[in-house]
Specification:
The chain is mostly helical. It is built from 3 helices and no strands.
Length: 119
């Protein structure tokens, strides 16, 4: 009984390997079609990223023009997009904080509620 079960398992395993090999060889046409599809999608994505880059450059130029005076070297002297964005961000970070206020009050210590340290 055990020998028949082992033979059946071996037959199923062999069949599965043959099916897998057959699907791999027949799937090469599908892989070429998928590669063509992905190439088209990458070209579309590249065009979209170029448009996004142009928009970000416009935003960086607007931020640079809105800032009163840059604290570091001028970002408009041939610097790239990252330098423009960082300069605009650093100008906004260096501004004084308008939110919140510092508290100078110290809370009271209630002597009766202190827990003695454990030894």
């Amino acid at each position: 009984m055990l020998d028949e079960l082992a033979a059946l398992n071996l037959l199923l395993l062999t069949t599965a390997v043959l099916y897998l090999a057959w699907k791999c060889f027949n799937g090469s046409g599908e892989a070429k079609a998928f590669a063509g599809f992905m190439t088209d999608r990458i070209e579309v994505l590249g065009g979209s990223m170029t448009e996004v880059g142009a928009i970000l450059e416009d935003i960086a130029t607007a931020v640079e023009q809105d800032s009163p005076s840059p604290s570091g070297p001028s970002a408009g002297l041939g610097g790239g997009l990252p330098e423009l964005l960082l300069t605009g961000l650093m100008n906004r970070v260096s501004m004084s904080a308008e939110h919140g206020e510092a508290k100078s009050e110290v809370g009271e210590v209630h002597e009766g509620e202190l827990i003695p340290p454990s030894e």
